[in-house]
Task: inverse folding
């Protein structure tokens, strides 16, 4: 469980807006593990992207349009993956900052608690389902 019971009294209470010290510690461990996984995946993707570029530089002689197109598509996919991983890693960092500030698990728009089920699926969520749906409606 990432976020749930607000402990108001008792041992370790009143940490991070009503979460116990133990709850905050568990959340921190989960978010740190997520960040570490994403960071490792990002570093691996950076290395793979670098290898692709070296191969492309050394192996471009005699390429026809199809070869060039394939290499361009592969390079674009690798760059897109890097952007996605970097974005997800940044989201994990922001979630850890919000935890330290005491705002993790609360919607950044309405301040209502984000449902536990949403945080379990998407630990970096910063908005409740209602506010997220409103944002997507306005954007679309």
Result:
């Amino acid at each position: 469980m990432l976020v749930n019971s607000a402990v108001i009294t008792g041992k370790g209470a009143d940490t991070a807006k009503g979460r116990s010290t133990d709850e905050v510690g568990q959340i921190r461990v989960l978010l740190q593990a997520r960040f570490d996984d994403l960071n490792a995946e990002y570093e691996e993707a950076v290395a793979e992207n670098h290898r692709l570029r070296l191969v492309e530089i050394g192996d471009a002689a005699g390429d026809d349009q199809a070869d060039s197109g394939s290499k361009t598509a592969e390079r674009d996919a690798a760059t897109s993956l890097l952007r996605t991983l970097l974005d997800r890693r940044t989201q994990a960092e922001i979630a850890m900052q919000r935890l330290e500030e005491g705002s993790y698990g609360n919607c950044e728009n309405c301040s209502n608690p984000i449902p536990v089920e949403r945080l379990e699926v998407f630990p970096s969520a910063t908005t409740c389902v209602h506010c997220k749906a409103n944002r997507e409606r306005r954007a679309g």
The helical segments are 21-58, 65-101, 116-121, 129-139. The radius of gyration is 21 Å. The longest helix spans residues 21-58.
